[in-house]
Amino acid sequence: MKFQGRARRVVLLISTLIFMSAAGHASPHEVYSFTIYNKTERVITKIFVSEDGDDYRLFDIGEGIVPSTTAELIWTESTNLTGCRQYIRAQFDDNSQSEAVKFDFCEPGVVLEIKQ
Q1: How far apart are CA 79 and CA 105, in angstroms?
Q2: Tens-digit pLDDT profile for residues 33-42
Q3: How deeply is 90 buried, as exposed, middle or buried, from its count of CB atoms within 10 A (0-12, 13-18, 19+)?
Q4: What digits encode the pLDDT tens for the residues 87-105?
Q5: Cα–Cα distance between 14 and 8 in angstroms, integer?
Q6: Where are the domains of the chain?
Q7: Whole-model pTM?
Q8: Euclidean distance between CA atoms 64 and 79, whole angstroms
Q9: What span, in angstroms and rounded, lies between the C-alpha atoms of 97 and 47?
Q10: 3-state secondary structure of 22
Q11: Coil vs helix vs strand at 33
């Protein structure tokens, strides 16, 4: 009886490990990203994104994007169900903001040029 119980647990453990191993090799969640090029003479301190052009959310850009440089930004998984076309605007170190421009973020290799 003890042998059957152990054998059953070993088979269950092996089956679980095989299942977890297969799940670990499944295709990972797709990561969506885009590149911003700061074509201004000011530091970009904030990026705002909106699907409808009215309700903007702050996009985390860390310490900011200095003039004449690019930064790759990655969408969080919470945005995976939003539309491809989004409005985006930047705020600069003097608190001025760029005009909102609509982009299609599903296009591969999107590079957004921020102009003041």
Answers
A1: 12
A2: 788 999 999 9
A3: buried
A4: 999 999 999 999 999 988 7
A5: 10
A6: 33-114
A7: 0.69
A8: 21
A9: 9
A10: helix
A11: strand
